[in-house]
Amino acid sequence: MNKLALLPISILSLSLGAVGACAQGRGNDKPLGTIYVTSQGLYYDTFKTTDLPPRGRFQQLYPDTPMGPSTDFGPGDSGYVGGRWWVDTNNDAVMDELDTYFSCPLLGPGRETP
């Protein structure tokens, strides 16, 4: 199965509190997924570390885009908040208690292909 196809499935798992694995190159040949950073045009490996309460700064993760799961900013960008994500699971375009919040760092280096 394509890595890009794994992350949307993983988003559902993330909301259920599933624990992720280590990413490729860090002890596991099957990373949880990849995320495309639109500002950089690069893909990053990622893995889930924990669910988070809906408090503090978060960056929106878009699970269904033509490039696969994507976000606006990545490592080195001023808008990147270190892998603290929210997914608008109730599709109201507002961060609220009905959305999904979790930690999922982006592991460099980024690359041009998934």
Question: Helix and strand layout, with pairings?
Answer:
Layout lengths: L2 H13 L17 E5 L4 E5 L3 E2 L7 E2 L9 E2 L12 E4 L12 E4 L2 E6 L3
Parallel strand pairs: 1-5, 4-6
Antiparallel strand pairs: 1-2, 2-8, 3-7, 6-7
Structure, described:
It comes from Bowmanella dokdonensis. Keywords: Signal. This is Lipoprotein. Strand 1 and strand 2 form a beta hairpin. The N terminus is likely disordered. The protein is an alpha/beta fold and 114 residues long. It has one domain.
Tell me, briefly, the overall form: globular
Low-confidence stretches: 1-25
Strand order of the biggest β-sheet: 5-1-2-8
Following the backbone from N to C, one meets helices and strands in this order, namely HEEEEEEEE
Report strand %.
Answer: 25-35%
Q: How many domains?
A: 1
Count of helices? 1
Taking the alpha carbons of the first and last residues, their distance comes to 12 Å
**Into which percent range does the helicity of residues fall?**
10-25%
Rounded mean pLDDT score = 80
By DSSP, the count of extended strands is 8
Q: Please state the CA-atom Rg, rounded to the nearest Å.
A: 13 Å
Instruction: Please give the largest β-sheet.
Output: 4 strands, mixed
Instruction: Indicate the structural class.
Output: alpha/beta
Quickly list its features.
114 residues; alpha/beta; four-stranded mixed sheet; globular
